[in-house]
Amino acid sequence: MMWRVLRPFDPFRSVKAALGWLVILSVVITTVLIQVAYRSDIELQVIAIIAIIASLLVTQFVAHSLAAPLVEMTSAARAMARGNYSRRVRVSRRDELGDLALAFNRMAADLQSVDRQRKELVANVSHELRTPIAGLRAVLENVVDGVSEADPQTMATALRQTERLGRLVEQLLDLSRLENGVGVPLQPRGFEVEPYLTAVLHDATVALRRGHARTDVKFRLDVTPGHLVAHADPERLDQVVTNLVDNAVKHSPRNGQVTVVARPGNGPGGLVLEVLDEGPGIPQAQRELVFERFGRGTIDGVTPRDGGTGLGLAIARWAVDLHGGTIGVAESRRGCRIRLTLPGNALANN
User: Distance between CA 29 and CA 138 in Å, rounded?
Assistant: First the structure.
């Protein structure tokens, strides 16, 4: 508290104090030299010249110390304008210029992170788009060249690639809404959870197995009580469940099992939904990262090739936030357990 009170008077912690002390020091030097002139044979004009030179030297020293950080920040800003976000400035002062240098470095780090995410998005989306486009092109070229007939099996292959492209486009559209802070109107209603999740899980199973070719993964639905009724927007909840099941399928071991569990929430119409897999799980340090945009978990320090774009869980959190609910990684003895809670009828009252 005392240091905070004394800061305006400390030349090492306040630019205003440094300039004030500069003026005081210049006046003191001039006064002392004038007193020396009156008590000696030195001419007053000589003393005045010496005083001016001394004041200029002190002013030059202080001005250089104040301007040096600004010059360094200007150079770093120009480098950033050319696309080099790795430049940082030295923080050697404790005053406002030091605070400015700290803020500048934080800004540079944020810009570097955004630039890295942009490059990762381009790389990830290009990778995700390349596979279905190449597959679709191969199928169509074979049909056009007469190598294969446009029979149901061939068209089903083309349809699988088209559906994969559609899912990626939907993710990018949702990302655009998320980035722009666009509010999406919800249409909550009451529905029976077990038949709803059975249909959603069946559709997700068909679509995901087409994309992943993971016919070895089994699915289990556990809804208690069987007549459980929830209050939410089914279309948005469908999006969340599909993303969670998608991730669970990707990280399941061979012949693994993905379980979807539904239980009543705290309030009327509330819902607690969990998706469990038997994969390697998510390390404690990465449990928040995976819900960030472009955030992808690692296994033994290596990002899996089939990790996707890093948008699925971020979009799932966005959809749950629209409901006023929560989503996160819960403790599990094996694999990964994602738990989301929806407030139910409380959503309609907000």
Answer: 86
**340 closest CA partner among 256, 217, 268, 241:** 241
What token pair was written down for 286? 């990465």
The model scores a pTM over 0.85 = no
Q: Report which DSSP code applies to 185.
A: P
Query: How many angstroms separate the CA atoms of 89 and 102, rounded?
Result: 8
Distance CA 10, CA 15 (A): 9
Q: Does domain 114-180 have CATH number 1.20.1250.20?
A: no
Contact 257, 296 (CB under 8 A): no
Token match 């809404």: residue? 177
- Which CATH number applies to 189-349? 3.30.565.10
d(CA 27, CA 208): 80
pLDDT attached to residue 127: 62
Residues in the chain, pLDDT under 70: 1-22, 33-34, 37-48, 62-63, 94-95, 121, 123-125, 127-128, 131, 164, 167, 171, 174-175, 177-184, 204-214, 293-311, 346-350
Q: What are phi and psi of 41, to 5 degrees?
A: -90, 5
Domain limits, the chain: 2-84, 114-180, 189-349
